[in-house]
Amino acid sequence: MSNRKNEVTVTLVCSLFILAYYLANIFQMIQGGGLNSAEVFRLWVVVIIANIVLTIAGIIFSYIVINIVHAIKTQKEEEVRMLEDERDKLIGLKGDRVSYITFSIGVFLSMLTFALGQPPLVMFSLIVFASLMAEILGNISQLVFYHKGA
Amino acid sequence: MDKHKIRNNIRKLRFNNGEMTQEQLAEKAGVTRQTIIAIESSKYSPSLELAFRIAQAFGVPLGEVFSYEIGEE
Fold first, then answer.
1. B48 in A contact zone (CB under 8 Å)
2. Of these four, A61, A135, B15, B39, which has the most CB atoms within 10 Å of its CB?
3. Three-class SS of residue B67?
4. Residue A46: CB partners within 8 Å, gap ≥ 6?
5. CA distance A119 to A105
6. Is pLDDT at A1 greater than 70 in this prediction?
7. What is the tally of structural domains in chain A?
8. Number of C-beta neighbours around residue A73 at 10 A
9. Which domains, from first to last, does chain B contain?
10. So what's the ipTM on this one?
């Protein structure tokens, strides 16, 4: 597995955990009598911070594990080459395009719910959901491109 | 429909160059081993610059490493 592919996998796993946490909280709020603005905005902040922190921590942890495994395999203390080449960049761009399209559709649908008479909190909640889905689908598409070659 | 395909002789050239490993070629060309694997199995067409670097790594002209074919699908 290349370093970049490894990074994408870690980001994907982190995003899935955060999505699960977000959906669990949203459903809890709905069951407890509906969305309230203070809770929804608190959840926004938690999701954004957790996404950044978890992803960075996950990537650092994976680099440490990769280097340990590499050292055990090769019996040498040299660092693994962390290289991003043209194929990695191309796949990254293709993944970004998938994320962008997903997020655009998500924002459009969120605004549509508002236009159809739903409260603004529903729209905001759907925008966060769309951003998480965009990240997840972008990462999945990158893994598919890595599997296909590019 | 015409199917354009870039074919390569990387496997043969690696063999002719003292069974050069994919890792060694990747280091010479400045890419990851996974990219060399993808190019060798014709899953990825490299940029012109990378194609030249691969040819340079073998010390042969570009045409000996890559060829362009148009086939019917």
1. no
2. B39
3. strand
4. none
5. 19
6. no
7. 1
8. 8
9. 2-72 (1.10.260.40)
10. 0.85
Strand partners, B7: B67
Instruction: Answer whether A121's CB lies under 8 Å from A113's CB.
Output: no
Q: What angle do CA A22, A9, A136 make, to 5 degrees?
A: 40
pLDDT score at A103: 97
**A40-62 confidence digits (pLDDT tens):** 889 999 999 999 999 999 889 88
Q: What is the per-residue pLDDT for A37? A: 86
The pTM score is 0.86
Q: What is the pLDDT of residues A60-78, one digit of tens each?
A: 988 888 888 888 888 777 7
- Closest-CA residue of A relative to B33 is A2
Q: Which residues of A touch B23 (CB under 8 A)?
A: none
CA of A5: which chain B residue's CA is closest? B34
Task: Map tokens 């996998």 to a residue.
Answer: A9
DSSP state of B21: -
User: Which residue range(s) make up the domain with A7?
Assistant: 3-148
Structure tokens at B64: 């000996």
